[in-house]
Amino acid sequence: MRLIQHDARHIAVKRFNLPVTAVDNCPKCAAEVTREFQGDDYISYPAIGVPERIYFYCEPCAVEWERHIVIQFSVTVAPGEEGTPSVALPPYDPDAEEEAE
Ligand SMILES: [Zn+2]
Q1: Could you tell me whether strands 87-88 and 4-5 are parallel, antiparallel, or unpaired per DSSP bridges?
Q2: Considering the entire predicted model, what is its pTM?
């Protein structure tokens, strides 16, 4: 088996939870604010491998601000399943894909 790696693509999942907690400080009061990305706190249709905008909100200050994260997704062939070498494709070009259809 082999894997062909594509560049940034969107994941067609409306409620995408992450096993990550993001922590930032409120720009007004400097209090720590967290994003858990679990349960009702999710990212919609995230892109892989490119900056993804996330928002923080400080309730006492009623201030919202944005930061960026990069979600990286890794899939490997399980040990013992190696075959032909895996390859990386050139950067994703949606225009090229439309022309091919
Ligand atoms: Zn604040």
Answers
A1: parallel
A2: 0.69
Expressed in angstroms and rounded, the spacing between residue 94 Cα and the centre of ligand 1 is 41
The CA dihedral of 42, 43, 44, 49, to the nearest 10 degrees, is -150
Contact 5, 89 (CB under 8 A): yes
Centre of ligand 1 to C-alpha 28, Å, is 5
pLDDT of residue 66: 97
For the residues of the chain, what is the DSSP string, one character each? Answer: ---EE-SS-B---SSB--S--EEEE-TTT--EEEE--STT--BSSPBBSSEEEEEEEETTTTEEEEEEEEB-----PPTT---SPPEEPPPP-HHHHHHH-
